[in-house]
Amino acid sequence: MNNSKRSCSSAADLNNNEIISSSSTPKKKKKSIVTSEAKQVHTIGQIKELRMLNFMCHKNFSIEFRALPMQIVTGANGSGKLRKTTRIFFLIKKYFLGKSTIANAICICLGAQARTTGRTSNVQSFIRKGETFAELTIILANEGPEAYKPELYGKEIQIIRRIGARSSGYKVLSDHRKLISTHKDTIAEILQALSISPENPLCVLHQEVAKTFLLNSDAGKKYQFYMKVSQLDQIKQAYEEGVCTVESLRRRVDTMKQVEFHSLNEMIFIRKYLETH
User: Fold this and answer.
1) Rounded to two decimals, what is the model's pTM?
2) Is the pLDDT of residue 176 over 50?
């Protein structure tokens, strides 16, 4: 396959990172390809841009993604893509496969816990050495008939996560940079509506998780992995919570029936008393 390369638009990127389009063609047809790509629109939930400030090895890095079904991000060894030799990071629609700083940034910005990366359990560990904070920004496409609350967010949803030395916080902005929310629950609702699962190993398979699964997994761990990637564990948890809710409502109804029974008996007693007096 002949691929054409496009340099990252960020002037602050010192790692010579590049994006390789999966649908690129030879240079002699470049003019027509650019014209056709200009007409393409990002699918709902696709990442349009990722920005990293003081995150891991990146001082100030941003990358824009085209409106294509698949993109490949490559980088030199130690540039923050992958840790060993040169490897490939795939971005397929809303799903991410790779073991890189970019994958970590996407997951952390979308609210995933630090332990899911397999690197650390402390999100402050992702702050670049010598800095006091890190900031991640993701711009998600929100266009089309299935757009999530377009009257509120518009054609883009911007999610910002700022990681401080002691705490971290979120901001959710509209396409006009209007502040919509600062609550993590809002991000969870957006992810559910756009079918994005940053903590699902089938969407993001981190290096340490892959090593554990391939080298040190037994039947029990494989079953747990299957339950997680198929989201059956979430269904089981939701079912158990539903059963508890139903049982709680049933007890409440029984209590209300007893209160009603006693109230009726008191009314009957009062009525008889009034009739005899």
Assistant:
1) 0.62
2) yes
